[in-house]
Amino acid sequence: MPTSFPDAYRLDKKRLAAAFNRAAPSYDRHAVLQQTVAMRMLERLALVKIAPRRVLDAGAGTGYATALLRRTYRPEALVAFDIAHGMLRQARRHAPSFLSRQSYLCGDLERLPLAAESIDLAFSNLSLQWCNDLDRVLEEFSRVLTTQGLLMFSTFGPDTLSELRASWAKVDSRVHVHGFADMHDIGDALIRAGFSGPVLDVERFTMTYPDAYALMRDLKTIGAVNAAQGRHRGLTGKGDLTALVNEYERFRCDGVLPATFEVVYGHAWVPEAGVRAQDGSTVAAFPIEQLRSAIKVRFPH
Q1: What are the chain's domains?
Q2: What is the arithmetic mean of pLDDT over 161-189?
Q3: pTM over 0.85
């Protein structure tokens, strides 16, 4: 399938959960991009006339988007779902009270522990890339959403961390950067899962760093560790790290090193029973950078 990757790129979910658990206490101080993308998604949702009673924040992390969804829709039920218990503990601390209608579920997006047709809006901010089977995840969203329910998501595209990927490729042949699905393949997967009216677009962010070590520290701080099966299982040698740093220097511009993040945004609907899902030719896809200049986000150092 177009959305699958070689076994070397298959993710170790236990390693991911452990990394996110460790990152949870300090996550909000470093998740600049994740928070920015969440706001972009809410801007898109503002253009859609919906009044969901039951909302799922799939991949809620520490609850940043959960709080935005609560204030925007004031739903009867709001579920914060994440693979890491530590993240959900932080999200619970952000909730208005223990008597709120917000609940917390820990699990895997590929096996949502929710009843069929129990959610009106599924919102997933930069979480799909942590799944091994995109088709399975989208089928799960289709299952739990009500008729005419909406899926709104963002995920990373294949240009993400292209500089880091290219630099490591000069050092060895192991997997150092995860595989990310192309926007058009995601659109096709939405159709296969039975969704209707999919719309997708792309935005590229450029983070800047003083050196490659700072980039890798930031990734580790938010839990974005290398969890691919094809990763090197031992400690990376000093020689390899030095080689990586030297290779990354090729990308230095205006005194800093860039790190590209390609963000794919999408939304689609669950059609009424008997309505055939649209074919891939109906997917509306356009690069958002044609409408505005690429945004540069700089981390404070």
Answers
A1: 7-158+179-205+261-292 (3.40.50.150)
A2: 95
A3: yes
